[in-house]
Amino acid sequence: MRPRTKAAASFTGIDFSLTGKQLGYGHVVHSDNVHDGSVIPVPLAVISSGPGPVALLVAGTHGDEYEGQVLAHELIRELDPERLTGTVIVVPAANSPAVRGAARVSPIDGGNLNRSYPGNAGGGPTGQVAAMISGDLLPRADFVIDMHSGGSNSTYLPCAFIYRGPDEKLWTAKLRAAKLLGLPYVMVVAPLLEPGSLSSAGDLAGILTISTELSGSGTVDRHALGAMRQGLPRILTDLGIMREESDAGTTTQIAEPQFLELVPESPVTSTAAGLFEPLVDLGETVRSGQPVARVHFIDELDRAPREYQARINGVVAIMRRPTLVAPGSHLLYIAPLLDSDSL
């Protein structure tokens, strides 16, 4: 367990020094016509057997990404402190206004939590949540997983999502954790890809931090849930936070994931307004120059649709969900395959 800093945020129902299962919430204070004289609760669970390593599991960073939220609530209900040799902190609805509004960003201040770290304890609601997590929860953790999915606007291949770096030791630990998760893909991106993200905050703090993209489309993918229900306990056991089941028997062989990389040439971007028609499927292998999408013009009835080609060889890793597009809309992303031996 890492040395704990003095807490700056306020919590109800949570005492980090206690063992057992505690259910409470963090306080976000915001004075407007709705929230004046109240707090905006950020649900929080702390499940602990006492001293030992600590895992921080975060979901609901974006309110319309549901697989992680379902997993977090399930873990809170089912995880027994007696099975632990440390502590699991679960934040199931990190940007709780966005979760309640079924929106990517907060409907109160328009804040995108995954662009807001390290946050501002004296700022708006989203900045306060980022400050609470980065200032009060992150320093306690030895391992962090931020569970995302494609949300309402896109569908991802279900994958562990890892930033390169920040050093050889943490990179090796990230690769191990990503494989243990057992998802069919691992998406590799540039170091500190989004400077205001929880992944970047974890890297800058020197804490083992990974993320996920668990399908999406504004719904719940049961196959991604099934893989994560096996993968999360496997990681917690490997990190020495959860006891291995005595009747677990022979260890199940984990299939080697496919490693993909998002690069600057990955997005296929519309230059027109109209109706998006995909010409390929999610997970399909494509080659540079291959037609992958069309956009049909709404008002120009005699105009042929505009066709778009892949700029690189790779796998269709992300697909836009809404059909209506505008210039600048990313239609899909193509991710080149990586040789795992080169990582």
Describe the protein.
It contains 6 helices and 20 strands. The protein has 2 domains: 11-259, Zn peptidases (Aminopeptidase, 3-Layer(aba) Sandwich); 264-342, OB fold (Dihydrolipoamide Acetyltransferase, E2P) (Beta Barrel). It is an alpha+beta fold and 343 residues long. Strands 1-2-3-5-4-6-10-8-9-11-20 form an 11-stranded mixed beta sheet, with helices on both faces. Strands 7, 12, 14, 17 and 19 form a 5-stranded antiparallel beta sheet that branches. Strands 16-15-13-18 form a 4-stranded antiparallel beta sheet, with no helix packed on it. α1 links the parallel β4 and β5 (87-91). The longest helix has 17 residues, at 222-238. It starts with 10 loop residues before the first strand and ends in a 5-residue tail after the last strand.
Mean pLDDT, to the nearest integer, reads: 94
Distance from first to last alpha carbon: 28 Å
Number of strands: 20
CATH architecture of the largest domain: 3-Layer(aba) Sandwich
Based on CA inertia axes, which overall geometry fits?
Answer: globular
Number of domains: 2
Runs in which pLDDT lies below 50 for 5 or more consecutive residues are: 3-7
Helix and strand arrangement:
Elements: E1 11-12, E2 20-28, E3 40-48, E4 54-58, H1 67-78, E5 87-91, H2 96-100, H3 125-137, E6 143-148, E7 154-156, E8 159-163, H4 168-181, E9 185-189, H5 198-204, E10 208-213, H6 222-238, E11 258-261, E12 267-269, E13 274-278, E14 285-286, E15 291-296, E16 306-309, E17 314-320, E18 324-325, E19 330-335, E20 337-338
